[in-house]
Amino acid sequence: MRTSIINLPCRSHRGCTYHKHWNSSSASNASPKNSTRITTSTFHLPRGSVRLSLLNTSFSNTHKLAPIQTLPPELLLSICGYLSPISQTSLALTCRSIAFTLGPSVCKKTSKAGKASWWMHSEMLDVLQKDFKSEEWWRCEECLNFHQRVKASQQSEESLIKGLLDRSKNGRPRAIQFGMPNDPLYILDFELIKGVMDRHFLGPAHGVCLNTMKCQGSRTFPLSKATNVVLKYDFTPKIVLDSLLLQSTYSFQLQKTMFVRNVKLDEISIKEFLAKLGFWICKHAAVVEDLWGLSTTSKHEEFSKCEYCPTEYGMRLKAEQNIKLQVYHNVGAGRTAKDPKWLHLSRGGKERKVYEGKREDIAQAYQRVYCSTKEEFERQMARSDGLGNYFDRSIKMCTYKTLPLRLADRF
User: Fold this and answer.
1) Model pTM?
2) CA 141 from centroid of its chain's CA atoms
3) 45 and 118 co-located in one domain
4) Any idea where the F-box domain is (predicted)?
5) Are residues 298 and 202 in the same domain?
6) Distance between CA 228 and CA 267 in Å, rounded?
């Protein structure tokens, strides 16, 4: 069986605050290849995924005893009496020996207490986090869960044959790098797109979480002895009408590190800095060369379209020292590497071709269309009054003031 490897988009660096490592010692000693990789091969991993040491006895022999494990059972039960039901369950799930000491009554108290709120679940993850290696797991803040960095999933023979046929003519699908060519912020390849869309079309038992594509962080570039340039970036995916959209936001801001009196320093403008940096938002458009003429001081960005791929971008300039760049990409359905949208995004240089689907409004579709599937959008239209006004009787309020029908048709 062919091994399909899904890499996290921030695999080239450790500065992502969303897929961050919580074990600093292990993160500094581990090799970068094993820290941000997800594999979908059915080999090398057992079928059952074990998440807690309570469910697997092999973990008890590989870790040293924590100080709390050496306490007498009477003292441990006394400490547990001061904790809330959800905290007692969290303590029981941290260790197999502690769970046996506290007994099954702890879980019964939690079930009687009712459902816990999101912040209680977040506290539980904080307690359990020490038992998870950050080189093997990353913590999803949206769904309050731990996802494996190395994941095994079954692939049907039909999908494998289609994948081989796709690669026979076009070669292995190329990755798209956003940011600096030598040190990219975000690397997007087809395996990740297909894994995300497999979960969308086939269910949660397949593929990977949508938040795998979400990245955020910041970088600091020394511009002079007294000035730095701070780059803040954010990548947020969204599925709209069975298509995967990616919103990326970049913010460049000058930051003074010291104030010097009666001394004249050579200041470099942020435009000159970006020209030397070579910052790319796709394989066809650079910030200075292609986007500087779009800069505006208004509150609303004026989006322009890339000539060679389904990408829209807009720039806002504030006092010539603060630049905010917003970019939208239409990655497609992710079913095959021959998808025209993916081919236009991944081809650069002499292989690029003029993109013909310029009627679609990617930015508006990302902001205004809230239906992830086409069936959901058609169902909402059927329940509306024909003009897009949909009144939900269950909550007794208008959920859609307008359904962008023309926008969806063009998209």
Assistant:
1) 0.72
2) 10
3) yes
4) 68-97
5) yes
6) 11
| SS3 state of residue 228 | strand
Beta bridge partners of 305: 312
Taking only the tens place, the pLDDT of each residue in 19-70 is 888 776 444 444 443 334 444 433 333 333 433 333 344 434 444 666 777 8
Please choose, from the candidates 201, 196, 197, 198, the residue with its C-alpha nearest in 3D space to the C-alpha of residue 211: 196
Q: Which two tokens stand for residue 224?
A: 């002079």
Strands (E), 162-319: 176-179, 184-188, 215-222, 227-240, 243-256, 304-305, 311-318
Contacts 24+ apart (CB under 8 A), 113-118: 113/84, 113/85, 113/86, 116/86, 118/144
Count of structural domains within the chain: 3
At residue 169, what are phi and psi to the nearest 5 degrees?
-100, -40
Domain containing 405 equals: 376-410
**Helical residues (DSSP H) of 237-300, grouped into ranges:** 270-277, 287-291
Evaluate whether residue 156 is within a structural domain: no
- 78 and 211 share a domain? no
Mean pLDDT computed over every residue of the chain: 75
**Whether residue 126 has pLDDT greater than 80:** no
What does DSSP assign to residue 71? S
Task: Tell whether 87 and 235 lie within a shared domain.
Answer: no
* 310 & 382 share domain: no
Residue 33's CB is within 10 A of a number of other CB atoms, namely: 9
Inside any domain, residue 299 = yes
Contact status, residue 312 vs residue 362, Cβ threshold 8 Å: yes
Residues 196 and 139 in one domain: no
Reading the block at residue 296, the tokens are 């505006």
In this structure, the chain runs to a length of 411
Angle between helices 85-93 and 118-128 (to 10 degrees): 30
Neighbours of 205 (CB within 10 A): 9
Its sign, for the CA torsion 41, 47, 48, 51, is: negative
Tokens of 103: 């007994």
222 and 126 assigned to the same domain: no
Establish if 162 belongs to a structural domain.
Answer: no
Select from 129, 132, 71 the least CA-distant residue to 102.
71
Domain co-membership, 245 together with 144: no
Residue 387 domain-assigned? yes
Residue identified by tokens 């063009």 is: 410
